[in-house]
Every structure is written in structure tokens, then in C-alpha cells.
Amino acid sequence: MPSSTKIPLGTLGDINVGYQLRQAVEIEPQGEHPLIQLGNVQDGYIEMKNLNRMTLKGKLDKAGRPLSAVRTYHYVHTGDILLRSRGATYGSAKVVEESDKAIALSPLFILRLQSPLVVDDYLVWFINRSETQAVLRSKQGGSYIPSVSLESFKELEIILPPRKVQEQIVEIDQLARHEYELTQRLQKARDTFITASLEKLLNS
């Protein structure tokens, strides 16, 4: 079987900084752009429902200057991978559902894969694994609000086994997640049943 290779993340696709708003989000229910913010992105999951919306055209920043234009790469599309550069984790998540004119805000980074060498779900798994998170934490800068730079993400070494192996890893990980979810549901149902039974005995 072919051996694994190590490739810098930046060679697998284009990585860009999310749109830099430079002002507080003004929530506008009918705003032009759904905004994907740091809090919407968890490790392996993006909350795309009920995103805050805002129209950027014609708005001014804190210094009274017009907001910068939205670039093509700010728009989020199905298959893009969003990277957290700040916060409790430096995890990633793949966009699985597209929202019209949705843009990702800084400090999120937007990765658009261009390489046939990598399976997108494998890459998300690899970035979110504890060993990779430890590497990213070793690269963080800043004392008040630690963060990882765009350059550090681009230089992050990704271990790439053959695509078939990547697909196997993804399949096993998804099965494990599904099993965990089922176990949690069963435990919750069990706890509810026990609590109800004890209350019934107490009041009998």
C-alpha cells in the first residue's frame, strides 16, 4: 500500500481571511447577507439556520469610512471548509448547505480545496483531531486573545494517506459519531424513565 505523505495545508487549496467587518454586526432580518460568525462554527459543524443578516453596501465603519467591498472569496459555497483562527479551539467544519449570498466573517478563514489528493471530510477530521489541535496551539500568538495566523494555517502539515484510506477513516469516524449520538439518546431516555419511576414510587 502506498505510504502517507505530508503536505502543507496551503498547497491543497486557497485559504483566505473572512470578511473584516470593522464594526458591530447590525442585525437586519431582511439584510442582504447572511453572516457566518465565529460562534456559528463548531468542530465539524456549522450552524446555518437563523444566521444574523446585514446589508453592507452603504454602511460606514467606526471611523466613518465606507465598509470595504465583499470579495468573491468571502462568499461561502458548499464544500468550503471554515477554519477557526481564534477561540476555545482552532477547529474546522465543512459547509454542507449553501445560503444565498452568505459570507464568512473574520476571524474565520475560508479554505477552498483545489487538490484531488485530499478528501474534504478527512481534512476536517484531521484538523479537528487532538494532535493537530495541539500543534495549532503551539503556533498561537497574542496574550489577551490567542489566535493562529493565516500563515501558520497555510504551513500546517497535513498527513495524507491514499484517498481510499482517507475514505475509510471518514467512514469509521462517522459511524463512531452516530454510535455516540445513539448512546446519548438511550442514556437520556433511561434517565427519564428512572426519574419518573422514582417519582411515582415516592408519590404512591
Give an account of the 3D structure:
- The protein is α+β, with helices and mostly antiparallel strands and 204 residues long.
- It folds into 2 domains: 5-161, Alpha-Beta Complex (Adenine-n6-DNA-methyltransferase TaqI, Chain A, domain 2), CATH 3.90.220; 162-204.
- Helix content is 31%, strand content 19%.
- It has helices at 120-128, 130-138, 150-155, 163-202, and strands spanning 5-8, 13-17, 33-36, 41-42, 45-46, 53-54, 81-84, 92-94, 103-104, 108-113, 157-160.
- The chain has a 4-stranded antiparallel beta sheet with strand order 2-10-7-8. Strands 6-3-9 form a 3-stranded mixed beta sheet, with no helix packed on it.
- The longest helix is centred in the C-terminal third of the chain and has 40 residues, at 163-202.
Notable characteristics:
204 residues, 3-stranded mixed β-sheet, Adenine-n6-DNA-methyltransferase TaqI, Chain A, domain 2, alpha+beta
Mean pLDDT across residues: 91
Which range does the strand content fall in?
Answer: 15-25%
CATH topology of the largest domain: Adenine-n6-DNA-methyltransferase TaqI, Chain A, domain 2
Structural class call reads: alpha+beta
CATH homologous superfamily annotation of the largest domain: DNA methylase specificity domains
- Structurally, how many domains make up the residues? 2
Judging from the principal axes of the Cα atoms, what is the shape? globular
Q: What gyration radius follows from the Cα positions, in whole Å?
A: 21 Å
Order of helices and strands: EEEEEEEEEEHHHEH
Q: Biggest sheet, open or closed, and with what strands and sense?
A: 4 strands, antiparallel
CATH architecture of the largest domain: Alpha-Beta Complex
Would you state the CATH class of the largest domain? Answer: Alpha Beta
Termini distance? Answer: 66 Å
**If helices are DSSP runs of H or I spanning 4 or more residues, what is the number of helices?**
4
Strand order of the largest sheet: 2-10-7-8
β-strand number: 11
Q: Would you identify the regions where 5 or more consecutive residues have pLDDT less than 50?
A: none
Helix content: 25-40%
